[in-house]
Amino acid sequence: MRLDGFGLFVNDMGTMIRFYRDVLGFEIKEDEDTSNVYLIKDGTLFLLYGRSDFEKMTGRKYEYIKGLNGHFELALYVDTFEEVDERFSEVVAKGAQPVLEPTTEPWGQRTCYVADPEGNLIEIGSFNKPFER
Predict the structure, then answer these.
(1) Is residue 24 part of a domain?
(2) Distance of alpha carbon 64 from alpha carbon 42, whole angstroms
(3) Average pLDDT of 6-18?
(4) 65, part of any domain
(5) Are residues 51 and 78 in the same domain?
(6) Domain count, the chain
């Protein structure tokens, strides 16, 4: 098996599509009015699933965290410390909720956190060099 992508179960599909497309620059692959939306970021598939549609499909109810949550983070990398600060300011100006202002950590990473409209944490970070796989 290989990793194909990952997804979020969302309550408000339109708001979440606009956030990931317009604020974070994900490329949308579907119409906005579908229940499963495919977005792409740097070659990685990112899916948004409507919560009620998924519950209907699986025939069961699920519990969802409300507000800021710490279940996971979505990490985005930029090449320089300056870009961390620039991207933080840019996405906050476009509507991301600030969580942690840009900070240089003792381990040498400059990082910051914002949240999407449903409270999922997004890290923007750098080790002040281009990303290496």
Answers:
(1) yes
(2) 28
(3) 92
(4) no
(5) no
(6) 2
Mean pLDDT of 69-80: 92
- Who wins on pLDDT, 40 or 106? 106
Asked whether residue 96 is assigned to any structural domain, the reply reads yes
For the chain, the DSSP string reads ----EEEEEES-HHHHHHIIIIIT-PEE-S-TTSSEEEEEETTEEEEEEEHHHHHHHHT-------SS--S-EEEEE-SSHHHHHHHHHHHHHTTPEEEEEEEE-TTS-EEEEEE-TT--EEEEEE-SS----
Predicted TM-score (pTM) of the model is 0.90
**CB 71, CB 65: distance < 8 Å:** yes
- Tell me which residue of 132, 41, 128, 123 sits closest to 79, measured CA to CA: 128
Cβ distance 16 to 8 under 8 Å?
A: yes
Q: Are residues 20 and 44 in the same domain?
A: yes
C-alpha to C-alpha distance for 102 and 100, rounded to whole angstroms: 6
In which domain, by residue range, is 15 found?
A: 5-58
Given this model, what pLDDT does residue 4 score? 82
